[in-house]
Each structure stands twice: as structure tokens, then as C-alpha cells.
Design goal:
The complex is a heterodimer of chains A (895) and B (306). With 895 residues, chain A is mainly beta. Helices cover 8% and strands 57% of the residues of chain A. In chain A, helix 2 runs antiparallel to helix 4. Chain A is globular. Classes of the chains: A mainly beta (895), B mainly beta (306). Chain A: Residues 1-28 form the signal peptide.
């Protein structure tokens, strides 16, 4: 065997030596020597002390280390790994160095809580780092799996045990990236920092949330409160429902109102949930403002199709609104004054880190402005009020990481009162000297919602979360007129009152169970007792003198009990396919009749080539409540009534199909959805019934029912993040009704059947101090019922007498319900915020908004008119426009 | 500077409030184009009575309000058929004086209960309209003595309450119209009284609505086949020169007359939907249907009256 040349041997030796030295140097860098003293105390503190001394981050799960205590110990020129081993010696923990990282986890022998199959569950809450507010819809991504926090900020995810990088992200918050040694189940509250929208140069960073093509749910849009508050304001007020109206598939009702019409549904087919409690007629001032004070809101989710099984009770949409829990750490708040209303919100800790509160109030002050002008009126108006107010109160107490209790109250009310007096003396007519007559009329009308909710969140284990709610909700309309007249001879009084409304008491329990990384199960049961008061009136009068007072009262009260049970499973079949299977069962018992329906809910997603998701969803819905309403505008007198043996529950089936994809690094979501919805037993007043009627016992005989259809396609582009964000949507839709005894039993277009609709909202942060936003709405003409002509009618079989044709009235020719479409609707709204951060950290905003910038005369209604000029008659059609250009100014102070 | 800010705020508030409460109206070109007119045929076939039919042209909206003169069709041939068999041609007749008159087509035969009748009208230019209806039985009813009662909504005013005993035939769905008339001396002219039905089976409040109407329509759904006492109120104090009229209607007559009664109320009301009025005339507008009219004088109980 020939020997290697000497030079070669030397070279190899040098290289080996260099490699060994380098290796030793590298090893020393990875496991440095340290000199430090750890104090007597928890193992956690001791490990952290070692980490600081070595300037190395040691990864561990605090809950594992906190259970051990260590004595004081000094290490001198000892390698970090050796020091850690010494501290861990008496414990059941071990150190693992992997890829240069120091990880402390359970020792090899499994102890209780460690998964025997090699998986572990990470569960807990995600909260705002500053306020402690738990966040809804936060995405937690770990080891290729992902989940989101539920409405209570809770999440649970089970993954293979071991080292894992976790990524927690939400729009508007800095993404949190952490590494966990997940060897056993861990329960933890993660905190994330808010992106400072004002201090930064406003780049809301891209979200790492699952792309739209990864989500199974269809017909769901999450709105951030920032976007709602940045959208153009109406009369100085940010309004949730008006922002929701800018979404495709959602229409406003009459001009200016907050009523929602979702995918061809009617206004009563929307479920408004405020912290899980249903709210009826959630609007003020005849629907112009919504009842939701945006300063108190945390999250808004709209579902307009493919409803998850946990929702039920309405046919067309669910608007799930969550309010803030309150800042657990510091006192904060905001105050605003606008053209119509002022509000303040205050939140903070009652006991730091444990108990928090939110208090908010809003009131309009039109009466304060008008009152001075009433002094000049002929009649003496001594009491005058016209306003609405909202009050929100919420208390939150954290008993432990596993138990939290919430108590929330909402009260909103519209009110009008005018009390007038009139007095005449002896100079009135032929009255004798000293005679007088005093009269006073007092009229008031008011309506409002009141809700109260108590919720208890409990974590049963790493995979099971429960929420128990007790709730009450009431909508009440009340009006009264009283008059009093007195003179030297007599004293007369009369009182007339009317009350109507609905009151709910109920409770429910919801479970959130994550048994496996591929399954997210939700199940629950709820019970609601409804009490309907379609009409309760009383009348009393006292004519004085010798006549006996008269008291008459009439009351109609109806009861109904509703039970809802549901279960759903979000099942990840593969990385490219998932399905949500659910079943919602409901039962409604009312006088002499019980209805029960099983409502399947199915939606699925499959990823196609090109990273495009194909989605399909099917949902059946049952609604046991009807709203007796006229067909033109929503009024507070509209009455909620139950399904009865004669008036059946409303039922709907909806099929949705669509494609979705995100682009531009997941900052822009594109989707197109088609839907077909069939609605049965939708009701209307019979033609000719009086619309202001309060429902007595015969209300069932005044209504008729039938079928409704709606179908359409929605295109949606949504940019949630960035200096410029907002959305644009186009909808092609068609909806009609076929109702017995209406329109000669023929099918007719629904009142809000708008064929084309385009809406866009843009929010742009021009600079640190100037934010602008604008929205534009275009809707093709809505159908109206118009009189096309008139002709002679007949009411008697023979001319009854002499000279003229008597009783033969004019008959207006209306060939069909909603027979003409005249003018398109379009409107541009703009808003500009001047923002200033003061030295003390307070934020001051001046907002200037303009509604209907180019003053387009949008139609509210039409009516035919005519006259007789120069011997010839003429006819014309008059358009009524409700809302011309409306500028507004508001001032907001946040502290 | 503060003063300026306050001024700006005040002006904005006032301007916004003004804009909010001031609706705007404008007229648009909709009725300018000529619309093709339609033939209107009307006739109510009263059991055991001769037939009066009327032919007119449709008008533009509003025309009849200002100039009550629907264009009459006087030169048509109007034929009456009973159960499909020709009965007679109706004779044109002008009713009224030389200034105010109306043109009718009149039969010589009376229509009989339970038969189906068809009217066919042919114009000289060949246009033809037709419609048919059947004639119901006379209603069976009696009325009690009327009494004066204070108005619930205005105790300073008296109303008249009358109990109507209506005997509804069993086994069929029946419809009724109830009216009250006050006759001038000699029972030649009459004017309609506004009435309301207050019970039983009906409960409501007059808080928002003026429940008094010139006529009350009722079907027998709540009292089918029974003899029922309906409590009616007239908004005025009635005396002896008044009558109650009860008309039995066919389902089609009920639909038409009821629709017609409500339709005019809804035309200029911005918050109510205009109502399509039922028509059964082929190739035209109007209505032909059966009714059976019966009247009974109202006797007023003036016991205790001043």
C-alpha cells in the first residue's frame, strides 16, 4: 500500500485541526459558559436568569416550570446546558437542544396529561395586549393547521406533539410569532399588540389568516369596527347597518333607513344578535339610525347564506354583533358630538386584570334646538320632547382562566311628547263674566328595545369550551293621548292608551369542542319564551257632572315557546377539501299548535387548480315570527306576531355556489357567489286592509301568505388591509312573490327587486392626520305600484235617482303590483377625518361628512297628480325625494 | 377662534336639521304619451231585478276627478245571455235630465236567483268585451232598535248603535256588504252614512285609524251557517228617515266591491300600496257580477233622549 505524500498528510491534518477548532468554537457559541447566581424561587425565574446570563432565549412552557421551586445556587464558568441540567435534575423535565435552540419540556417518561398518541392540544384565549379585551376571529396557525377564536376569544387546536412555531394574526394587530415546545396540553392566553393606525404610517399589515379559499363558510363577511368607523358618516354618526348596506346582496329599504333586505328577503327575516341576544326593530327615528353605538362594538359578522347550524330563527340573514368586554388594565373612553347626537363611552377596570366595565350613552338633541322656536306658537306648549337615546352597560369578571362571567344591558328608546294648553276667558262668545275654559292635551309616543344578558364562559378542558347565556329582550311601542277640560261648571278628562310589542326570556348553552385537528364541533340547545302583545289598548273618560266615568280596556296577548337544538362539525377532509355538516332542529309551540322542523345545513369547499376554491352551501331555515308591516316603509307600529294554527311559520331553502380566491399576498379577496332562495309562508296584509291597524284578535284574518323567490349573483372584491382599503361589489338579482289574494294571485316583483347593484367603499389614509373615505351606491330602478289610468266603477245595480250617476266611483287602474320601474338610484357619500394625537396621548378627530354629495334626487316614492288648466286637464307624476345633500360635522375625543 | 368653531358647529347643525326634515318633490314626465284607451263594461246583476249596464272609455289618471265625464259609449250592441242562452239585446237609455244624464243599456227581463248571466258588448268598429256572473239569494236579516251611545273616541259626540241579526246559510261561503242611508223627504235622494262593525268577533282600536267607512264588507268565516248578531255603529245620530241595506254578494262581487272601496283611499296615500282592482271583463275593464240587495228601515229607540 503506497504511503501518502507528506504534503498531503500535512494538509489533511491542518484541515482536520481547523475543523475541530471551528466545531469547538461553534459548540461554545451554542452552549456558552456562564457565571451567575439564581435566587431561591420558582424554576421559571431561575431558567430565565440563566437565559439572560447566556443571552439566549430558552423556550419552555411556563405552566410546566411553575410547579417546581429551586434553592439559591451559583454557577461559575459552567456551560449553560450543564447549569440547566443541574436545575432540572430533581424534576420530571428535560432539556433538548434542537437546531441550536434550548427547549425545556417533559422528560421522556410520559406523565399525566401528555398525549399517548403523540399529539397535544393548545387552547386558550387571544387578547388585546393593552386592554385585555379578548379578540374574536383571530387566526392561530400552527404546524400547518389553523383555527380561529370564537365569539368569546377562545380557541383550541390539537396537533402532533413537539416543537412548533405558532403564528397568531388578525387584521389591525401585529402578528405574533412564537415557538412552543408542545409536549402536553397547554392552556394559555396570548396577547397581541394593536397596530397603531395613527402613529404608524398606517399600513395595516397583511393578515396571515386563512385565505378565503381555505375557508369553508360562504356568504359570510366580517366587518372590522375600524372600517365601520372610517366609512362616511350619516348626520355625524357612524352606523353599522348603513355600512352593512354597502355590501353586495344587502339592500337598504326605503331611502335613508337602516332596514336590511338580504338576498331578496324582507326586513323581518334578519336576526340581529347583540351579544347573542335577539333585538327587534333595531333602529331609531323611523329607521334612519341603527341602535348600535359603534363605540361599544368589538366585532360584526354578517351571514347571508349557507348558515352554520348554530344560527336559526330567521330566513335571510344573521348579523352577529359582539360588544367590548371592557379594558381590564386602564381607564379609556371616547366622547363625540355630532349634528344629531352626542355619545360617550367609558371602559376600564373595576379590579385590575379581573373585572372590567363598559358604560356608554348616546342621545339626540333635536328637541333642544326646536324648543326655543316653540315659544312663538299660538298654543302654549309647556312640555315638548323628541329624542332617542341608547345606553349600554357591560360588566365582565374573570374568576379564573377557565371561568368568566359577563353581564350586559342595552336600553334604547325613541320618544316624542307634546303637551299643549289653551285657555279662553269670559270674552269667548256669549259667556258670562268670570267664565273661563281651560283645556290641555298631552300626547306622547315612544318605542324602544331593552335587553339584558348574563353569560358564563367555562373551559371544561383543553378541547371543550362552553358558554351559558340567560337573556331577556323586549321591544315595546307605547302611545297615549290625554285631554282635560275644565270650566266653572264642569271638569272632563279622557285618556287613550295603546301598547304593543314583544318580550322574550330565554337561555341557551353552547359547546365548542375540538376533538381532533380536523374537526371543530359546535353544539348547543336554547329555549325562548315569547310573549307577543299585538295590541293592548285602554280608554277611559269622565264627562263630569253626574255621568259615571267609563273605563274600557282591550288586550291581546299571545305566547309561544321555542326550542332550538343544533350540532355542526367543521371537518377538514384534506388540505384541499373541507365540509361543514350541521343540523338545526327547532320546535315552536303556540296556542293549540306545535311546529317542529329539522333544518339541515351543509357547506363544502374544494381547492381547484390555480388556488381557486369552489364552494357550495345549502341551508334550510324556519322562522316562527312574522312582522305585520305595511309594504312601503317600516314603522315602529309594525307588529311582531307568532306563527299560529292559521298563519304558518316562514320556511326557506337556500342553495349557494361560488368561487373564491385571494390575491396580492392575501390582502385582497375575490369572490363570486350565486344563490337561489325559496321562501314559503311569507305574509302580507290583504289588499285593502288598513295598514295602521293594531292587531286585535282578528289579525290573522287580515293577512294572507304565499311564496317568495330570490336568485342572483354577487361579485365581491374586499381589501381589508393597507393604506387604501375597502371593497367593491356588484350584484345581479331578482326576487318576486306570489301571495294569495294579492295581485289577483299572480306572481309580482318584490318591492325591492333591483336588478343591478354596484357598491364601493374606499378608505384612504392620506397622511398621519388626514383620513378620507367615500362610498358610492348605484341601484337600478326599484319597482313601484303606479296608477296608469282610471275608469268608472260601479257600486249599485241601478241608477238610484235622478240627475247624476251616483255611487259610480273612480277606479284607479293598477294592472299589477309593482308595475313600473322609473329611475335608478345612486349616491355618493364622502367623509374626511382630521386626526390629531395630543401630547397626553389623547386623540382628537374632527369629522366632516357629506351624504349624497351631488344632491341626486333619489326617489322615495311617486304619486300621480293632475289639474285643470285652460279647459284641459293634465296629469303628471310627482317624485318625492327624502334626503338631499346632507353635510354633517362631528367631533370625537378618544382618551 | 372658539367663537368661529361654535358658529361653524351651529350652522352645520341647523343646515343638517333643515335638510333632514325637508323632503323634496319634483315632477317627471310619465303620463305625457298617449295611452291606448280601454273599454269599460259595468253591471251589477241584482236578483229579481232588471239589468242596467254601462259602457265607457278609460281615462288618464286625475282626469275624472277634475272633469267628471267619462266618455260614454252609446252606440254599442249589448246582449244578455242566461246560462249561455241568448235572452235579449239591452236597450240604450239616458237617465237624468238634459244637462246631467248618464247613458245606460237596460234589459226588460229580470235576472233570477242562482242563474249565470253573460253580457256581451260589441262596438261598431268590431271591438268586443264580455263578462259574466251569477246571482245570489236574498240575504236574511233583521235589525233591532237603534240606540244613541257616546263615541268612545270623543265622548262629546253621540253615535248610533244598531244590532243586526244576520242569518247565514250553512254549507256555503257567503259574503255581505252592509250600508246605511239617510233619505231626504219623499225617499228620493239618499246619502250614505259612515259605519263601523264593532263586534262580536272583531276587536280593534280606533287609536290610529278612522274605522268609519261608507260600507262594511264581511264574510261568514267567523260565523258560517249561524245566526249572528253584529253590532254596528254609525258615526252620526240617526233618526227615523234612515235605512239599513244588506247585500248578499258572490265571491267575485265581494272582491270587486271591496277592492274598489279601498282602492280610492290608497291612491294618494304615500304609505299605502295602490291596489289592483279586480276585473272580470274579457278584453276590457270593469265588472259584471251578481248581488242581492235588501233594505230595512231603521227604528230608533229614543227612550230617555232629551
Amino acid at each position: 500500500m503506497p504511503l501518502l505524500p507528506f504534503k498531503t498528510v500535512l494538509l489533511i491534518s491542518l484541515l482536520l485541526s481547523a475543523a475541530t477548532l471551528a466545531s469547538k468554537a461553534q459548540s461554545a457559541a451554542d452552549d456558552p459558559s456562564i457565571t451567575c447566581t439564581v435566587a431561591k424561587g420558582s424554576l421559571t425565574d431561575a431558567i430565565q436568569t440563566l437565559g439572560k446570563a447566556a443571552n439566549i432565549q430558552i423556550i419552555f412552557e411556563r405552566s410546566l416550570l411553575d410547579r417546581y421551586m429551586v434553592a439559591s445556587k451559583t454557577f461559575t464558568e459552567v456551560q449553560l446546558s450543564v447549569a440547566i441540567h443541574q436545575l432540572l435534575a430533581p424534576t420530571k423535565l428535560q432539556l433538548v437542544i434542537r437546531d441550536g435552540k434550548f427547549l425545556i419540556g417533559p422528560a421522556a417518561s410520559p406523565e399525566k396529561g401528555v398525549s399517548a398518541v403523540g399529539s397535544a392540544t393548545l387552547s386558550g384565549y387571544v387578547a388585546d395586549a393593552s386592554s385585555g379585551e379578548r379578540l374574536v376571529g383571530v387566526t392561530i396557525g400552527i404546524k400547518g393547521a389553523a383555527t380561529t377564536t370564537n365569539n368569546y376569544g377562545y380557541f383550541s387546536i390539537t396537533i402532533p406533539a413537539g416543537l412548533a412555531d405558532i403564528r397568531i394574526s388578525m387584521v389591525g394587530y401585529q402578528t405574533l410569532i412564537d415557538t412552543l415546545f408542545l409536549q402536553q396540553n397547554i392552556h394559555r392566553t396570548f396577547t397581541v399588540n394593536r397596530q397603531s393606525i395613527v402613529l404608524d404610517d398606517i399600513e395595516i399589515t397583511a393578515s396571515a389568516s386563512p385565505t378565503i379559499q381555505q375557508r369553508t363558510q360562504m356568504g359570510h363577511i366580517n366587518l372590522s369596527i375600524e372600517q365601520i368607523q372610517s366609512a362616511p358618516r350619516f348626520m355625524g354618526e357612524a352606523d353599522v347597518l348603513k355600512t352593512v348596506q354597502l355590501l353586495p346582496g344587502v339592500q337598504q329599504g326605503s331611502e335613508g333607513t337602516s332596514a336590511l333586505l338580504v338576498r331578496g328577503g324582507s326586513p323581518d327575516q334578519n336576526m340581529f344578535l347583540l351579544d347573542g341576544t335577539p333585538l327587534y326593530n333595531p333602529s331609531h327615528l323611523l329607521g334612519i339610525f341603527s341602535t348600535f353605538n359603534t363605540s361599544t362594538l368589538k366585532n360584526v359578522d354578517l351571514y347571508k347564506g349557507a348558515f352554520p347550524a348554530r344560527f336559526g330563527g330567521r330566513l335571510s340573514s344573521v348579523l352577529d354583533i359582539t360588544t367590548k368586554d371592557g379594558n381590564l388594565n386602564e381607564l379609556h373612553g371616547d366622547f363625540s358630538i355630532g349634528s344629531m347626537a352626542s355619545q360617550f363611552t367609558l371602559e376600564g377596570p373595576l379590579k385590575k386584570g379581573k373585572t372590567s366595565f363598559v358604560l356608554s350613552a348616546r342621545r339626540t338633541y333635536a328637541d333642544l334646538i326646536v324648543r326655543p322656536f316653540m315659544r312663538n306658537m299660538e298654543e302654549d306648549v309647556d312640555k315638548f320632547a323628541v329624542f332617542f337615546h341608547d345606553i349600554n352597560i357591560k360588566l365582565h369578571h374573570k374568576f379564573s382562566d377557565d371561568d368568566r362571567v359577563f353581564f350586559s344591558v342595552y336600553s334604547g328608546r325613541d320618544y316624542f311628547r307634546a303637551r299643549t294648553g289653551y285657555e279662553s276667558g269670559f270674552d269667548y262668545g256669549n259667556a258670562p263674566e268670570g267664565w273661563y275654559s281651560r283645556s290641555q292635551d298631552d300626547f306622547h309616543i315612544g318605542w324602544g328595545n331593552h335587553t339584558g344578558t348574563v353569560r358564563w364562559n367555562h373551559v371544561f378542558g383543553p378541547k371543550l369550551f362552553a358558554n351559558v347565556s340567560l337573556m331577556g329582550s323586549q321591544y315595546r311601542f307605547h302611545t297615549a293621548a290625554a285631554s282635560e277640560t275644565s270650566n266653572p261648571d264642569n271638569h272632563m278628562t279622557s285618556d287613550n292608551e295603546l301598547t304593543s310589542g314583544i318580550r322574550d326570556f330565554g337561555g341557551k348553552i353552547d359547546f365548542d369542542y375540538r376533538p381532533h385537528p380536523n374537526h371543530a364541533v359546535k353544539a348547543g340547545v336554547g329555549l325562548i319564551n315569547h310573549r307577543f302583545t299585538p295590541g293592548s289598548s285602554s280608554l277611559s273618560y269622565d264627562m263630569g257632572r253626574s255621568e259615571a266615568p267609563v273605563n274600557v280596556s282591550l288586550s291581546t296577548v299571545l305566547h309561544g315557546n321555542e326550542i332550538n337544538v343544533y350540532a355542526e362539525d367543521e371537518w377538514q377532509l384534506s388540505p384541499k377539501a373541507s365540509v361543514n355538516l350541521g343540523l338545526h332542529g327547532s320546535l315552536f309551540a303556540t296556542a293549540g299548535k306545535t311546529y317542529a322542523y329539522a333544518q339541515p345545513r351543509i357547506s363544502g369547499r374544494i381547492l381547484l387548480p390555480g388556488d381557486v376554491a369552489f364552494k357550495v352551501g345549502y341551508a334550510q331555515m324556519a322562522q316562527y315570527l312574522h312582522l305585520l308591516s305595511n309594504n312601503t316603509i317600516s314603522l315602529p307600529t309594525d307588529l311582531w306576531v307568532p306563527a299560529t294554527s292559521r298563519v304558518k311559520p316562514q320556511l326557506a331553502q337556500q342553495l349557494s355556489v361560488g368561487f373564491a380566491r385571494s390575491v396580492a399576498h392575501n390582502t385582497v379577496e375575490l369572490s363570486v357567489e350565486g344563490y337561489y332562495k325559496n321562501m314559503d309562508n311569507v305574509i302580507e296584509y290583504k289588499e285593502g286592509e288598513l295598514y295602521f291597524a293594531t292587531a286585535g284578535r282578528d289579525w290573522e284574518h287580515k293577512v294572507t301568505s304565499g311564496n317568495g323567490r330570490a336568485f342572483g349573483v354577487e361579485f365581491f372584491v374586499h381589501k381589508k388591509v393597507g393604506r387604501l382599503n375597502g371593497w367593491a361589489g356588484y350584484t345581479w338579482a331578482k326576487t318576486d312573490r306570489k301571495i294569495k289574494e294579492v295581485n289577483f294571485d299572480r306572481r309580482f316583483p318584490y318591492k325591492y327587486d333591483r336588478r343591478h347593484e354596484f357598491k364601493a367603499l374606499a378608505i384612504y389614509k392620506l397622511s398621519k392626520g388626514i383620513h378620507i373615505s367615500g362610498s358610492w351606491v348605484y341601484q337600478s330602478a326599484t319597482p313601484f305600484t303606479l296608477v296608469l289610468g282610471e275608469y268608472e266603477g260601479i257600486s249599485d245595480p241601478a241608477p238610484t235617482y235622478g240627475t247624476r250617476v251616483v255611487g259610480n266611483e273612480r277606479v284607479p287602474l293598477v294592472n299589477s303590483r309593482n308595475n313600473v320601474r322609473l329611475e335608478d338610484y345612486h349616491r355618493l357619500d364622502i367623509s374626511i377625518d382630521f386626526v390629531k394625537i395630543k401630547r397626553n396621548g389623547n386623540q382628537r378627530i374632527w369629522n366632516f361628512s357629506v351624504y349624497n354629495v351631488y344632491n341626486h334626487q333619489n326617489p322615495f316614492t311617486y304619486y300621480p297628480d293632475g289639474g285643470f288648466v285652460g279647459g284641459r286637464s293634465y296629469q303628471e307624476l310627482t317624485r318625492v325625494t327624502l334626503l338631499p345633500i346632507l353635510p354633517s360635522l362631528s367631533y370625537i375625543l378618544k382618551f | 377662534m372658539i367663537f368661529q368653531k361654535k358658529q361653524i358647529l351651529l350652522y352645520t347643525l341647523v343646515f343638517a336639521l333643515y335638510g333632514f326634515i325637508s323632503g323634496c318633490t319634483d315632477t317627471i314626465d310619465f303620463y305625457q304619451g298617449e295611452r291606448r284607451s280601454a273599454i269599460v263594461l259595468n253591471s251589477l246583476l241584482n236578483t229579481d231585478s232588471i239589468v242596467y249596464a254601462r259602457l265607457t272609455w278609460m281615462n288618464k289618471p286625475g282626469e275624472m276627478f277634475y272633469d267628471w265625464a267619462p266618455d260614454e259609449i252609446k252606440d254599442a250592441e249589448v246582449s244578455l245571455y242566461e246560462n249561455g242562452d241568448f235572452v235579449e239585446h239591452l236597450a240604450p237609455v239616458a237617465i237624468g235630465d238634459t244637462i246631467y244624464n248618464a247613458h245606460y243599456y237596460k234589459s226588460t227581463h229580470a235576472v233570477r236567483q242562482g242563474q249565470t248571466y253573460q253580457l256581451v258588448a260589441k262596438l261598431p268598429d268590431g271591438q268586443q268585451v264580455s263578462a259574466e256572473g251569477w246571482t245570489p239569494a236574498q240575504p236574511s236579516f233583521s235589525i233591532g232598535k237603534a240606540t244613541w251611545v257616546p263615541s268612545p273616541s270623543n265622548p262629546r259626540r253621540d253615535e248610533t248603535q244598531i244590532v243586526l241579526q244576520l242569518n247565514d246559510p250553512a254549507g256555503e261561503h257567503n259574503y255581505y256588504r252592509i250600508r246605511m242611508f239617510t233619505y231626504s223627504e219623499g225617499y228620493v235622494e239618499r246619502w250614505s252614512q259612515r259605519i263601523t262593525w264593532v263586534g262580536p268577533g272583531k276587536q280593534g282600536t280606533s287609536f290610529f285609524e278612522d274605522e268609519f267607512q261608507p260600507q262594511v264588507f264581511i264574510d261568514d268565516e267567523l260565523f258560517n251557517g249561524q245566526s249572528v248578531e253584529l253590532i254596528l255603529r254609525c258615526e252620526n245620530m240617526l233618526f227615523e228617515n234612515s235605512k239599513m241595506e244588506v247585500t248578499a254578494l258572490t265571491q267575485e262581487s265581494y272582491r270587486y266591491l271591496r277592492n274598489n272601496a279601498f282602492a280610492n283611499e290608497s291612491v294618494n296615500n304615500v304609505i299605502t300600496e295602490p291596489i289592483p282592482v279586480f276585473t272580470n271583463v274579457m278584453n276590457g275593464l270593469g265588472f259584471v257580477g251578481g248581488v242581492a240587495v235588501r233594505e230595512q228601515p231603521i227604528e230608533v229607540d229614543r227612550t230617555g233622549a232629551p
